[in-house]
Amino acid sequence: MPAMASVELQAIGKTYxxxxxxxxxxxxxxxxxxxxxxxxxxxxxxSTLLRMIAGLEDVTDGTIAIDGSQVNRVAPKQRxxxxxxxxxxxxxxxxxxxxxxxxxxxRKVPRDERRTRVEEVAGQLGITxxxxxxxxxxxGGQQQRVALGRAIVRQPKVFLFDEPLSNLDAKLRTQMRxxxxxxxxxxxxxxxxxxHDQEEAMTLGDRVVVMRDGHIxxxxxxxxxxxxxxxxxxxxxxxxxxxxxxxxxIESQGGQGTFVxxxxxxxxxxxxxxxxxxxxxxHLVLDEHGPIELIVNxxxxxxDATDVVGTCGGLHLVARLRRIEPPRPGDRLRLxxxxxxxxxxxxxxxxxxS
Length: 354
Ligand SMILES: Nc1ncnc2c1ncn2[C@@H]1O[C@H](COP(=O)(O)OP(=O)(O)OP(=O)(O)O)[C@@H](O)[C@H]1O
Ligand SMILES: [Mg+2]
Hints:
Elements: E1 7-15, E2 21-30, E3 35-39, H1 46-54, E4 61-66, E5 69-70, E6 81-84, H2 96-106, H3 111-125, H4 140-153, E7 158-162, H5 170-187, E8 190-195, H6 198-204, E9 207-212, E10 215-220, H7 222-227, H8 232-237, E11 244-253, E12 256-260, E13 265-267, E14 273-279, E15 284-286, E16 292-301, E17 305-312, E18 315-322, E19 332-337, E20 343-345
Parallel strand pairs: 3-8, 3-9, 6-7, 7-8
Antiparallel strand pairs: 1-2, 1-4, 4-5, 9-10, 11-12, 11-14, 12-13, 14-20, 15-19, 16-17, 16-19, 17-18
Helix pairs in contact: 2-3, 2-4, 3-4
This protein binds adenosine-5'-triphosphate and magnesium ion (MG).
């Protein structure tokens, strides 16, 4: 069995030559055996953070510890980490099998064991028939799977994945995602996985870390970041279609609070003042007494549900409605909000727990 390890980041920061502050003050512990996903928009510092853990980038400030020992000055090779990049760099002159064996050969793993490990992993990844081909004779998706296999056969202490499924088509990506997850459930190697795809983050992670502009916004289980986003950014980033936001204010009179905006009025108790409410499209429902009147612009039937895009008091809203005939442009729908599904944010965008 592979050794496993925790990874501790203490106030990690990275300033590139030229002055870009790519990562700032990130503190995070990835537990032994955990599958942690770093997610955030392009340029938020995900790859930089991962590359610092791998030792491929110097840390400007803070410390990184693997299995309890600080590794800031430890060379990448000595960290016992396997990294899979978006741009998998396979050796072009070697077959898939040789590519996968290469790291094991360097570590003097006996020939028979190399063969067994490579064939087992190739089977799991569905690339057995490709083992004797060179990368030039494979599709991008096949090469990506070989690159994954090359990391997996090494049985490192920690896996680092940087968007390893991005070159696969949608169906294969979903399939490989499930395969990675079940592999992790079997082997349990500590894994840190970078993606900008919130769905991939939610489906793969034991915990999800949402990043923005080099900062950690929130760290929690997939259900935590979905049901209790720390702020408006996380709320808008996690979940698809994106959460609807309605800006307005809460006004109280005689103990009765109302959220007031151009688009809607909703009973809602204080505190008084500027407030943004957030409602996920899947939490809007047809309700003839509901507070929202949506004028339909576009219907997008998905089969089990229809995404209805429309306007309400000049505001664009999206509702995901189940089991309805797709409404037509110009139709007016009365919508209510499922109980307990409304989110609230203060003027700074911080969540207000209700
Ligand atoms: N070698 C470098 N030199 C200078 N700046 C860099 C370098 N690499 C990245 N950056 C900058 O650091 C910031 C973070 O980049 P990083 O690659 O970590 O983002 P990312 O979250 O991985 O984005 P993506 O999803 O697009 O891969 C960006 O502003 C980027 O332009
Ligand atoms: Mg990146």
